[in-house]
Amino acid sequence: DGGITQSPKYLFRKEGQNVTLSCEQNLNHDAMYWYRQDPGQGLRLIYYSQIVNDFQKGDIAEGYSVSREKKESFPLTVTSAQKNPTAFYLCAISHRRGEAFFGQGTRLTVV
Amino acid sequence: GENVEQHPSTLSVQEGDSAVIKCTYSDSASNYFPWYKQELGKGPQLIIDIRSNVGEKKDQRIAVTLNKTAKHFSLHITETQPEDSAVYFCAQQGGSEKLVFGKGTKLTVNP
After folding, report:
1. Distance between CA B50 and CA A46 in Å, rounded?
2. What does the CA dihedral A44, B76, B78, B57 come to, rounded to 10 degrees?
3. How many other C-beta atoms lie within 10 A of the C-beta of residue A39?
4. At A51, which helix (H) or strand (E)?
5. Of B34, B98, B102, the CB nearest to A48
6. A41 touches chain B (CB under 8 A)
7. In this complex, is the C-beta atom of B89 within 8 Å of any C-beta atom belonging to chain A?
8. Which residue of B has its CA nearest to A10?
9. pLDDT of B61-110, one tens digit each?
């Protein structure tokens, strides 16, 4: 994990609700990423941010939103517009040399 | 665009044998190629990486080779052990500085 903390580890959401996943880091890295992992799909990029107050959409941004108000924090909100939110969500951080470090993930389940 | 193909999707070997996983990429601007190991229910861990100015890198039983002309890179694990069983992901980083991942290889090492 190397100084990156995701919470909670497990999260349950009722249909129609928004939920927010937390990602915090204390390594002073500039770049932060959110990935979604489904069985057999590998890691798909949702959003990424390379600097405070700026972020870009990844390959599957629809139904998700993020903010980067502080360098240490990059929360991901799964909105009610995301029709199939059940998945394993991974946050990662990296510095400009490229090495990326992942958190331990949040498993989100719709009930 | 940025795309990474990873093969095979599953690999089963006997303890003590070698395992090889191959990835090909399309972005000629790619300059950083990491490999990650993911154990069940955990986030991926960086195990080895290589940059475009190097053809091979070794760390104990793990090695990575890079062929920039052919646009492929490979992970080699020698003297495999049961604890090597996991899902392995390759990735590449190019001009956009975001990491693009392969779909993963599930390695099983049979005792």
Report:
1. 25
2. -110
3. 8
4. strand A42-51
5. B98
6. yes
7. yes
8. B41
9. 999 999 999 999 999 999 999 999 999 999 998 777 778 899 999 999 99
